């Protein structure tokens, strides 16, 4: 492969600066952070905002249609006006799915590395410097975590922590089992060690991650089998950790213990993201979702019994192959029945290699557009209602970042709502009580309270 237009990279002297661009899910954000920490430990530094980096890593997502085309477009934009370019690495799920085909289609790509192999990135950089093939889409079981550096001081008071990877559910529309592999849980000790390091580095809220995070299982330090409820309870014992969240869950893995934990562990936030995908049983079966509308609603009922103020979030796909108008109306019904605080909604997009891509009766784009608009209108209506119901309430927020105006800070309520508050006397990382004074569709406004949050 001709690399004459690459930066000058001599033996023993690799790129000095890097930039990681992560797309897609929270797990990609976590992976991007870990790549950055690994490269930092090797003596590289993150390029300053607006500066050109010696190495650019495109940490890709393969969930949506045309994801591959977007990657090649992004690669093309990395060529500079003078004809030079940085060293380019394509990582993540597109890298896993496409492998060496990426370099055959885009000859200026130096490195291709899958999501289970990015701990080998430094070695791949060395190979690319020497003009050797630098492609690694191996899927070793959890070995990357042992090879990654320890967590250090974080720039924000919130952090993601991957506790498991992969998926055994094989929904007919989804590529995750093929790009992330089978479900594998990290060990109890490894998770607690990483969590403690994050808290020692200033983190006050941790979001546990996994494609099916609530399927996590492992033995604790006394050899007892634990589920995610036991893990969450143990994490809650860490001094300095104020909040615990988790995403994304599967209805079939909502255990009795996890539901109970929402009712009696105050550090486990009253927010549950539990995708249903459709409100119709025939479509759910065609999706291989392995739950029904009724079983899903019974889970929601039990969670609300345990934690009456819990906020619910979900995922929906419209226009799955063969979905009729009446079956789509069932999805609108479940939205109105559950009254989600927020949701993600998508048009079905065929992913090559998945069973649904070859199903008959693919839905026309115009029909999907109309259905998505109706669904999002219903979702937005309930989100506005949920936010409006918060007005007049006093609640605690964790201040996470600066706002647009002087003295303004933005934090999250326990229900994952963003709150803008003028609080020049406080700092990022502080927990403060606020009175919610107004609500919009996507955020709230508050003021520092003289009352204590309930």
List the helices and strands and how they pair.
Blueprint: E1 17-22, H1 26-41, E2 45-46, E3 55-60, H2 67-77, E4 87-92, H3 93-98, H4 101-105, E5 111-113, H5 121-129, E6 135-136, H6 143-147, E7 158-162, E8 164-165, H7 176-179, E9 184-185, H8 188-200, E10 205-209, E11 217-219, E12 225-227, H9 228-235, E13 243-247, H10 256-264, E14 271-273, H11 281-286, H12 293-306, E15 311-318, H13 325-338, E16 342-347, H14 365-388, E17 394-402, E18 408-412, E19 418-422, E20 431-439, E21 443-448
Parallel strand pairs: 1-2, 1-3, 3-4, 4-5, 5-6, 7-10, 10-13, 14-15, 15-16, 19-21
Antiparallel strand pairs: 8-9, 11-12, 17-18, 17-20, 18-19, 20-21
What does this structure look like?
- With about 450 residues, this protein is an alpha/beta fold.
- The chain has three domains: about 10-135, Methylthiotransferase, N-terminal domain (Rossmann fold); about 145-390, tm_1862 like domain (pyruvate-formate lyase- activating enzyme, Alpha-Beta Horseshoe); about 390-450, OB fold (Dihydrolipoamide Acetyltransferase, E2P) (Beta Barrel), CATH 2.40.50.
- Helices cover about 30% and strands about 20% of the residues.
- It has 14 helices and 21 strands.
- The protein has helices at about 25-40, 65-75, 95-100, 100-105, 120-130, 145, 175-180, 190-200, 230-235, 255-265, 280-285, 295-305, 325-340, 365-390, and strands at about 15-20, 45, 55-60, 85-90, 110-115, 135, 160, 165, 185, 205-210, 215-220, 225, 245, 270-275, 310-320, 340-345, 395-400, 410, 420, 430-440, 445-450.
- The strands form six sheets. Strands 2-1-3-4-5-6 form a six-stranded parallel β-sheet, with helices on both faces. It has a five-stranded mixed beta barrel with strand order 17-18-19-21-20. The chain has a three-stranded parallel β-sheet with strand order 7-10-13, with helices on both faces.
- The chain is globular and about 60 Å long.
- The chain starts with 16 loop residues before the first strand and ends in a 6-residue tail after the last strand.
- Residues about 1-10 have low confidence and may be disordered.
- Catalyzes the methylthiolation of N6-(dimethylallyl)adenosine (i(6)A), leading to the formation of 2-methylthio-N6-(dimethylallyl)adenosine (ms(2)i(6)A) at position 37 in tRNAs that read codons beginning with uridine.
- Monomer.
- InterPro entries: Elp3/MiaA/NifB-like_rSAM, Methylthiotransferase, Methylthiotransferase_CS, Methylthiotransferase_N, Methylthiotransferase_N_sf, MiaB_methiolase, rSAM, rSAM_horseshoe.
- It is an enzyme of class 2 (transferase).
- This is tRNA-2-methylthio-N(6)-dimethylallyladenosine synthase.
């Amino acid at each position: 492969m001709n690399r004459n237009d690459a930066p000058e990279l001599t033996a023993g002297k690799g790129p000095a600066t890097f930039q990681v661009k992560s797309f897609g899910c929270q797990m990609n954000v976590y992976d991007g952070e870990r790549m950055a920490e690994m490269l930092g430990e090797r003596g590289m530094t993150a390029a300053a905002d607006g500066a050109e980096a010696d190495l650019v890593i495109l940490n890709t997502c393969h969930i949506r249609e045309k994801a591959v085309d977007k990657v090649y477009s992004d690669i093309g934009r990395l060529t500079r006006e003078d004809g030079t370019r940085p060293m380019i690495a394509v990582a993540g799920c597109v890298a896993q799915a496409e492998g060496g085909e990426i370099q055959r289609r885009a000859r200026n790509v130096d490195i291709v590395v899958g999501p289970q192999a990015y701990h080998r990135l430094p070695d791949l950089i060395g190979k690319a410097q020497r003009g050797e093939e630098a492609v690694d889409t191996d899927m070793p079981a959890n070995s990357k975590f042992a090879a990654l550096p320890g967590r250090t001081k974080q720039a924000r008071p919130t952090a993601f922590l991957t506790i498991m990877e992969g998926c055994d559910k094989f929904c007919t529309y989804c590529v995750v089992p093929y790009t992330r592999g089978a479900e594998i849980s990290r060990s109890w000790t490894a998770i607690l060690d990483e969590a403690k390091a994050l808290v020692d580095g200033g983190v006050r809220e941790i979001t546990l991650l996994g494609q099916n995070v609530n399927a996590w299982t492992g033995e604790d330090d006394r050899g007892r089998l634990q589920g995610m409820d036991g893990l969450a309870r143990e994490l809650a014992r860490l001094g300095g950790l104020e909040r615990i969240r988790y995403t994304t869950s599967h209805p079939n893995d909502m255990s009795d213990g996890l539901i109970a934990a929402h009712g009696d562990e105050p550090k486990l936030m009253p927010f549950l993201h539990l995708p249903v995908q459709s409100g119709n049983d025939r479509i759910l079966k065609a999706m291989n979702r392995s739950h029904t509308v009724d079983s899903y609603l019974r889970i929601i009922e039990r969670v609300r019994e345990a934690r009456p103020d819990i906020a619910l979030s979900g995922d929906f796909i419209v226009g799955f192959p063969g979905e009729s108008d009446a079956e789509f109306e069932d999805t609108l019904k479940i939205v109105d029945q559950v009254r989600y605080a927020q949701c993600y909604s998508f048009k079905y997009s065929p992913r090559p290699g998945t069973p649904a891509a070859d199903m008959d009766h693919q839905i026309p784009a115009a029909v999907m557009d109309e259905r998505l608009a109706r669904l999002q209108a219903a979702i937005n209506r309930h989100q506005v209602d949920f936010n409006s119901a918060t007005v007049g309430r006093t609640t605690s927020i964790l201040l996470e970042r600066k706002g647009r105006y002087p003295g303004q800070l933005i934090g999250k309520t326990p229900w994952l709502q963003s709150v803008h508050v003028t609080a020049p006397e406080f700092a990022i990382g502080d927990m403060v009580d606020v009175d919610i004074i107004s609500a919009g569709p996507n955020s709230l406004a508050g003021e520092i309270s003289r009352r204590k949050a309930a």
